[in-house]
């Protein structure tokens, strides 16, 4: 029983071929492509409104130099949001529950922000390692602490996304299993459990959207420090 709860996080294979690539490509198929018509349908209009609003909020604290990242950050947000929400459907696989995938997204983006800071303004980038007005005896210790915190950032990005989605999926499966087990014995308790499951599903939808937003928001904050 214990192993079966974690089977949902195993990468599915078919004839020995991992299907995670299909799971990563599939969300892009669901989005309609923009058209050149003056009047679009409601879905494309809603999609454009959402992307425009998100881009405005994301780039609000950034200076014009960071606006070059608008396309890639918005695409990453839409990508993570689609994967997280599709993973809540029955009999689906959520690639963002894999720490390797999340770290593969977090490390390159974080490293890009650090490299940009070192190239454009190396003095300011290195100045973040030592706060102004630090007593001389504490300088070596603070430099070590700030350096460690700098390198922990991508790990925190990946682990936060993985842990939140994994915990939500496990909780949903545990409560759903309890509802099915209690149904023939205690119908009233099973109905209450199913109600809790429904409310938890709504909560997990919100968590899926919030975690995708937080991932991109933290990347934009790291970018803000280096542009």
TrEMBL record:
GO molecular function terms attached to this record: proton-transporting ATP synthase activity, rotational mechanism
Top-level taxon of origin: Eukaryota
Matches recorded under Gene3D superfamilies: ATP synthase, F0 complex, subunit A
A GO CC term assigned to this protein in UniProt: proton-transporting ATP synthase complex
Subcellular location: Mitochondrion inner membrane
Pfam families attached to this UniProt entry: ATP-synt_A
Coiled coil: none
Membrane-traversing stretches: 12-31, 69-89, 101-118, 138-159, 171-199, 205-223
First-listed, main subcellular location of the protein, grouped into a coarse class: mitochondrion
Alphabetical keyword list: ATP synthesis, CF(0), Hydrogen ion transport, Ion transport, Membrane, Mitochondrion, Mitochondrion inner membrane, Transmembrane, Transmembrane helix, Transport
Membrane topology type: Multi-pass membrane protein
Catalytic activity: H(+)(in) = H(+)(out)
Alphabetical list of PANTHER family matching this protein: ATP SYNTHASE SUBUNIT A (PTHR11410:SF0)
Complex formation: Component of the ATP synthase complex composed at least of ATP5F1A/subunit alpha, ATP5F1B/subunit beta, ATP5MC1/subunit c (homooctomer), MT-ATP6/subunit a, MT-ATP8/subunit 8, ATP5ME/subunit e, ATP5MF/subunit f, ATP5MG/subunit g, ATP5MK/subunit k, ATP5MJ/subunit j, ATP5F1C/subunit gamma, ATP5F1D/subunit delta, ATP5F1E/subunit epsilon, ATP5PF/subunit F6, ATP5PB/subunit b, ATP5PD/subunit d, ATP5PO/subunit OSCP.
Family classification: Belongs to the ATPase A chain family.
Name recorded for this polypeptide: ATP synthase subunit a
Natural source organism: Piaractus mesopotamicus
Protein's gene: ATP6
């Amino acid at each position: 029983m214990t192993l079966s709860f974690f089977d949902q996080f195993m990468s599915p294979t078919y004839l020995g071929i991992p299907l995670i690539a299909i799971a990563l490509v599939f969300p892009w198929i669901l989005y309609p492509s923009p058209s050149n018509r003056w009047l679009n349908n409601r879905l494309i209009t809603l999609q454009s409104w959402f992307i425009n609003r998100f881009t405005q909020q994301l780039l609000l604290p950034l200076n014009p130099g960071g606006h070059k990242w608008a396309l890639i950050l918005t695409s990453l947000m839409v990508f993570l949001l689609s994967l997280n929400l599709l993973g809540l459907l029955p009999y689906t696989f959520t690639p963002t529950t894999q720490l390797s995938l999340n770290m593969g997204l977090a490390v390159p983006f974080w490293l890009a922000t650090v490299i940009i800071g070192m190239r454009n303004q190396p003095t300011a980038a290195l100045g973040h390692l030592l706060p102004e007005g630090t007593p001389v005896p504490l300088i070596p210790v603070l430099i070590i602490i700030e350096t460690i915190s700098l390198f922990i950032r991508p790990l925190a990005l990946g682990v936060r996304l993985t842990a939140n989605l994994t915990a939500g999926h496990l909780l949903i499966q545990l409560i759903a299993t309890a509802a099915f087990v209690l149904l023939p014995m205690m119908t009233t308790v099973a109905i209450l459990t199913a109600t809790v499951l429904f409310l938890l599903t709504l909560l997990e939808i919100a968590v899926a959207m919030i975690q995708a937003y937080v991932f991109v928001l933290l990347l934009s904050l790291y970018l803000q420090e280096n542009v």
